[in-house]
Amino acid sequence: MVMFKIIRVETTPFEGQKPGTSGLRKKVKVFIQPHYLQNFVQATFNALGADRVKGATLVVSGDGRYYSKDAIQIITKMAAANGVRRVWIGQNGLLSTPAVSAVVRERVGADGSKATGAFILTASHNPGGPHEDFGIKYNMENGGPAPEGITNKIYENTTTLKDYLIAEGLPDVDISTTGVSSFEGPEGKFDVDVFDSTSDYLKLLKSIFDFPSIQKLLSSPNFSFCYDALHGVAGVHAKRIFVAELGANESSLVNCVPKEDFGGGHPDPNLTYAKELVARMGLSTTHSEPNPPEFGAAADGDGDRNMILGKRFFVTPSDSVAIIAANAVQAIPYFSGGLKGVARSMPTSAALDVVAKHLNLKFFEVPTGWKFFGNLMDAGMCSICGEESFGTGSDHIREKDGIWAVLAWLSILAYKNKDNLGGGNLVTVEDIVRQHWATYGRHYYTRYDYENVDVGAAKELMAHLVKLQSSLDEVNKIIKGIHSDSDVSSVVHADEFEYKDPVDGSVSKHQGIRYLFEDGSRLVFRLSGTGSEGATIRLYIEQYEKDSSKIGRDSQEALAPLVEVALKLSKMQEYTGRSAPTVIT
User: Organism's domain of life (predicted)?
Assistant: First the structure.
């Protein structure tokens, strides 16, 4: 048996190793600096404390982006040196973020061991490659992201770190082949278990959904299906779940071979970046598709986000979570006993609120960040949740789950079409959405992203918006100056969103600037923490329409007056120099 020894390597702190809502994300060139990754990993072990590290079982895997394979070997050697008992690695280092959460919560090792946490190597929907982004985050024993108490401690540790521990004489592990490798160190045995990436995740999904009914839908001659993994890790799971288990045709999978640089694309499942799927589904402005599939979906780099499309029809993420919640009890066996509650992030449209009220469900509005949902779920208060940034999920794990959302939609389609798969007209994605609007009203909704804005300019814009809130009379005067007609109602409330967690009592401040209008419309401005450089300003525009004769309008046309108000009120172009957003969703 290979023996290794533990060495202590002297180091000095790096500036800016503060993990955001989704861990630490930087350019690859930053991460490959000597000691940079090692410092962050040691700071994490120190923050967790000896009781959570010594003898622990840790998952180390990710979305397969550039630098992942090197990082896995470094973290494995550091885990051994810090007294971890075993490391579990998905084959080829590949596990989607939801699959990691499932493995932490569900997998039992051959020796009866259970995972106590995970290092996930991902920068989510950000591009990959030698000149692009890398990221790392730590998830806890519940399978969810580390809470602020831990991430703040990690950051504090990075500012004072003087050394880190690493195993010397521990060879690189072959992560391409499944099996257990055993080693011996000063503190005893250390095992590395390379396991199949999809089995545990698939087992969990099969316990949630009625796979035979989805299989029946996918095999119907009336139904066609397309799934685009954007060369992210979800491609590994998609082949096994959609083709091997559910019988979909392999040709229905697009870009399902994971690549370190995501094929040179931007693995963000929206109408701007999922170009190939958008064209296939008949939604391209430049390419005409004569016969699009009935259903299409896309994933991001680490497989936790999703975009849902019907034939020539886009489903907003805000509508998607509301529709899943409205149909879950009938269509998904896991929820047949009823929903404990539902939740959305603050910037997400209020479509879910209306469903919750209608169905008499507990409802929560939380800051952006999946950990807030996790607290509610751990307390048994929430079953289904979602956010407008293409994230949807449930209490089966503690991360958002892109493939879960796709299976939820396929379940709803299978349920609505159970009597007409042999022939006759299918109930389509568009039918389901329009029926939902007819029942609950429609929330016209759009998001403008201004990416890589100068950080100083972004902060000035936000400060300007906060200052404006001190006088609603002044705000309404400005609005009437922009739109003197009745297209835009008056602002009745404006604040910076603050959240008191009903579970642990913690308070999260400065979570976004809100302008709430008399007719239920909203403008929300947020600085996002998920980019690797510069600032991203996100502007959310929402208008609620109950009148069934007005729910069929084009979204951008319906929202045009509010968009104009938002841009002029915020002085967007004046502060940022941008005449148009980078992305509109």
Answer: Eukaryota
Q: Has 124 been annotated as catalytic?
A: yes
Reported pTM: 0.93
CA-based nearest residue to 565, from 549, 535, 542:
542
Write the pLDDT tens digit of every residue in 261-299.
999 999 999 988 999 999 999 998 888 788 999 999 999
List, for residues 308-360, the tens digit of each pLDDT value: 999 999 999 999 999 999 999 999 999 999 999 999 999 999 999 999 999 99
User: How would you label 472-497 residue by residue, b for 16+ Cβ within 10 Å and e otherwise?
Assistant: eeebbeebeeeeeeeebbebeebeeb
Helix (H, G, I), strand (E, B) or coil at 322: helix
Q: In sequence order, what E strands does 24-178 have? A: 24-27, 57-62, 86-90, 117-121, 133-139, 163-168
Residue 107 to residue 85: CA distance in whole angstroms = 16
In whole angstroms, what is the distance from residue 511 CA to residue 366 CA?
9
Exactly one of 22, 124, 252, 345 is catalytic; which is it?
124
What is the DSSP pairing of strand 342-345 with strand 363-366? parallel
Report the candidate in 504, 502, 499, 497 with the shortest Cα–Cα distance to residue 382. 502
CA 272 vs CA 101, 275, 276: distances in Å: 29, 6, 10
